[in-house]
Amino acid sequence: MNLTQISPSLRYCAPSIGLYFNTPSSLRRHRRLPLRLPTALPPTASSVPKTTTTIIPFLPRFLNPHFVTGNCLLSRMEFQGILIRVVCVVYSILVYFPWDVQSFDNDIRRHACPSVLDGQVSSLNGPASEAVEIDKRFWSGSGIGTNKEMVENLQSYGVVRSKKVSEVMESVDRAFFVPDGVPPYVDTPLPIGYNATISAPHMHATCLQLLEKHLQPGMRALDVGSGTGYLTACFALMVGPEGRAVGVEHIPELVASSIKNIEKSAAAPLLKKGSLSVHVGDGRQGWAECAPYDAIHVGAAAAEIPPALIDQLKPGGRMVIPVGNIFQDLKVVDKDTDGSINIHDETSVRYVPLTSREAQLGDN
Fold first, then answer.
1. pLDDT at 303
2. Are residues 246 and 169 part of one domain?
3. How far apart are CA 252 and CA 237, in angstroms?
4. Do 86 and 175 fall into the same domain?
5. What angle do CA 317, 68, 162 make, to 5 degrees?
6. Are residue 189 and residue 337 in the same domain, yes or no?
7. Among 80, 144, 200, 313, which has the highest number of CB atoms less than 10 A from its own CB?
């Protein structure tokens, strides 16, 4: 049994994990297991296994391939690899025994964080090796050296779909908003200190797409957990000088550094004019001074949707917020013109928690 292919999602630019079992034909006849070739990447002579491949479609919702979408660092998601191993080991013992447990365990651990594969690809061969190389190129942003190339890469995967989002992400150079010495265009969350992160580019693009209609010129936007200020700057460019973009962050040092970041970006004139501002505060309470908001983005996972944010959402407005503890969903909250609330789940995600400043810094 091998993890023989890791591929970019057709909907989100996070890696999808496919489990492929090499099974004898006699066992397949008795079990009547489904047979189909991988569809996430075009099959080629070198990528399709020589033996017959069976895809196991049993993984439950909390092991959704898009589970890694979010801003939680991969190092904090080791439990997911454990869950995958436990479920797959039990299933395979019942249906596929015997198989190479050590090989499967190694594949899971290696694929859970592609960065650990450096110098180890030679230990794999065949389709698994090719899949690892694909995965490493995808996560490292190999060949992506400019902000424009990063956006074009997101467009090629269908994450960036509108001209407006593309223009804004090209205008706001991500390099100004990540720590020095870190590859800025890697499609993965990055630590920014204080137990906080900047979300992966695909997550920023996803949220901008979801909020685009509520980020029209003259509208108001709130960014809760604004971090280094990247998404707040994007909001400001979208709503323009006649609109209002507000960032709220409870770490004073991050607020200070985010203002410096914005001053180096295309959003600097809006900061100077006052239509863009970043404040120190508890994002769970929103920022009532500039409410109501047409768009609210929350960059950390809340156990429940904070009532204050619902109150500050304008009728006809939309909020995007990750909700949950161990298992999280990116929820889209729409407030109708009559004040009624509609909520739907967009995808499974993994974000850092939305908590108090003391609790966040207490983990240091």
1. 95
2. yes
3. 24
4. no
5. 45
6. yes
7. 313
Residue 14 phi, psi (nearest 5): -110, 150
Report pLDDT for 25: 43
Is 37 in a helix, a strand, or coil?
Answer: coil
Give the Å distances, CA to CA, from 171 to 32, 35, 163, 213, 263: 53, 46, 12, 19, 13
Angle, helix 252-263 to helix 230-239, in steps of 10 degrees: 50
Q: Divide the 364 residues of the chain into consecutive groups of 10 and give the mean pLDDT of each group.
A: 36 39 43 38 38 36 45 53 62 53 40 39 48 47 81 94 98 96 92 94 97 98 98 98 98 97 98 98 97 98 97 98 94 96 95 93 70
Q: What are the residue ranges of helices labelled H in 159-306?
A: 163-171, 201-211, 230-239, 252-263, 268-273
Same domain? 48 vs 188: no
163, 221 in Cβ contact below 8 A?
no
Of the candidates 86, 109, 140, which is a domain's last residue? 140
What's the alpha-carbon Rg for the chain, to the nearest Å? 22
> The domain containing residue 263 runs over which residues?
147-361
Residue 71: per-residue pLDDT: 74
Instruction: Give every CB contact of residue 289 below 8 A, 6+ residues apart in sequence.
Output: none
> CB under 8 Å to 172, separation ≥6 — which residues?
147, 230, 233, 234, 237, 265, 266, 267
pLDDT at residue 363, rounded to an integer = 54
Q: Mind telling me the catalytic residues? A: 199
